[in-house]
Amino acid sequence: MASIEKQKLSFYEQNGFVRFEHALSQELLQRLRELSVRLEASAKQELADGAVRNQYYLSNESGEPRLFRYNDLFFDDPELVLELLASPTMLAICESMVGLGCVPMQLDLVYKYPHPHPHIAWHHGAPHPRNYPYLNVGVYLDDADLDDGCLRYIPDSQHKILDIYTLSSEHGWQIPGVVQQPAKAGDILVQDMMILHSSEPKRSEGVRRTIYIELRPVEGIAESGKQSVQWAELRKQWMAHVIKRADPKDVPADWLAFYGEPQYELATLVNLIKEKWEPPIPAVWSHRDVEHPDYPTPADLR
């Protein structure tokens, strides 16, 4: 079983985020990149055909349509999704940072193109009672360099919802205590779902693609009561397929009994999850538009 260093866990507990370097094999990284290219080409073709679906979002700020977000990758390439979730580092994160009962809730892909395509303003992820872990796991398909729209965090800000409007109105991108967290292609960046974070406009050419995976134990899903018991059970079935796909040495012994054998074939499970779709818990943003000379668009990019 792949293990997580104690100092990584300690850093996460103190700050609410942590990076795992070189977490993906080059072969898996390349296949995920190829999937991202196929999905963007498909979305653009559907736009041209006038048949855009609500599974993805296109931005047109520069006059050229660019994919901003593509949700529910499990619907498009479930085999590759299982391989990603069954990789040693992902299973180690599930075991050490979430624990028995961990399930994948969402698995989406975010594309970040240079300004004027979208930045990510300050926000908290899904609010919840905080009695169980709730992670947002970023799998980087491209580099996210310092001062180029990489993630910004306010360490240890995950415990309650802050006044985002006041903080961003007074400080813009430079809220006191802010840190930038760069990442390289193949890294995994784990953050507490509720940590206050943002991402400035990208300045360099090209696209940055990040797969975001929400992980939470089924007990936490039940506690929040935002999704149904059936919805949670289907995610447990998804995890059962992940375990079956994984190298046995990477699977904790007690997980086999908890998750059991998958009750549905993979194609059937994909269709059930699609048919029984329920919305994720929404993030928390500023309740008003912020007016600041350097935020959200930096002055030199206006």
UniProtKB/TrEMBL annotation:
InterPro entries assigned to the protein according to its UniProt record, in alphabetical order: Phytyl_CoA_dOase-like
| Keywords, in A-Z order | Dioxygenase, Oxidoreductase
Q: What's the superkingdom here?
A: Bacteria
**An example Gene Ontology molecular-function term:** 2-oxoglutarate-dependent dioxygenase activity
The region annotated as signal peptide is none
Oxidoreductase as UniProt keyword: yes
Q: Which cofactor does it need?
A: Fe(2+)
Oxidoreductase recorded as keyword: yes
Protein's recorded name: Phytanoyl-CoA dioxygenase
Species for this entry: Pseudoalteromonas rubra
